[in-house]
Amino acid sequence: MRALAELRGLARDLAVELGAPSSGRFPVDALDLALSVPLGPGPEPLAAAADALVATLRERLDEALRGTMAFLEGHVYCFHTDQPESPYSSPPNAASVFAGYAANGRPEWQSFPNLCLARREPRVDRLYADPPEVLALVQTADELSGELLPGFGRGSRAYAVLGQVVLGLVPRDLDLRGRGAERVALTLQIVETTQGTRDHRLRLNLLGLPAEAIASAAADADERSPAEAFRKVLRTARQRIDALGRQLAIAARRGEAVDRDALVGQILNRLRTDVLRVLKVRAHRTQHAEVRHQSGERPTSLALQDAHAAVDGRLLNDTQRQTVVVLGPKQRAHVFTPTGRHVTSLVLEPGEVERKLERGRWRPLDPAGVHAFRRAIAGSGRG
Q1: Model's pTM, two decimal places?
Q2: Which of 205, 236, 323, 332 is a plausible cystine mate for 299, CB 3.0–4.6 Å?
Q3: Is 27 exposed, middle or buried (CB count within 10 Å of its CB: 0-12, 13-18, 19+)?
Q4: Contact at 8 Å (CB) between 172 and 226?
Q5: Would you give the end-to-end CA distance of the chain in angstroms?
Q6: How many domains does the chain have?
Q7: Does residue 207 lie within any of the structural domains?
Q8: Which among 104, 117, 112 is positioned nearest to 147, based on CA atoms?
Q9: Is residue 279 part of a domain?
């Protein structure tokens, strides 16, 4: 116990030199070390063994401490700069996906259409169809990290990309009915980070579109929208990845062999299937919605009529877009600017008003806002 206490003190001192906090909870739980104890006479063998131990301890601590901060969602760890965020760690443009590491540890990116061409994806022409088709590919750890050199991320215990799904091109707002939104490519990775001996963690890393943007798009739409369906797919994937991480940790403690790559591959293939199912089904429904829009079924022409007829309680404030939402009859809803300019109209799904009120996305318009809005639309649209 005295020897272990001395080693713990030494490790903590070295960790502080490497940038760890000197007080509070230590960021690394434990380290496994191969300890060589010279049994011959004289101090020289002990001094050499001590120097080797300190060097090994410093190296392992440095790697473990990097593991505590290596994961940054929306970025791939850059071994070239040894930082989670660098000029190379995120997609350089909307169409780029992670294409793997260069030998020196620098993340490399490639446009999704070019990646499809390089892999001879037979449906690559469908990316430019009308409407465009979404494609998705699975890539393994060997494809992404096989070129890494020792000292530049090869065999890193701190951070590893275990595989990914790349997909595109999808509207940035995830509204498949629209034709004007910029289309982006996404990279969905399973990443492993290690913080010492026991704290191995698997996570889903999303590149190309922030999770907040997906949540916002889902809040804007109804419960059966592509954005909400995609949000649920990602939530399920995170749950599966967390469960796999726990399974691997338990197996490691028990000394049981587990085919991690095969289990990661199962999750990635399932994720690819779920993404394509959601987006392809939605694309079909979208064409129907477009026909309905062109046939005049959307309630645009009733916007001002419903706005004049609405009682105060049917006037709501969209807290994110700072617009006025008018609730009309037959599930109709109309969006106006506070100055009375009509933005859009739509038919709401059952329960959608209650859902957005519960989330705080829509709130009752305050009396001052009601008065200003009614003044703005006064004299307009009365039959």
Answers
A1: 0.62
A2: 332
A3: middle
A4: no
A5: 90
A6: 3
A7: yes
A8: 104
A9: yes
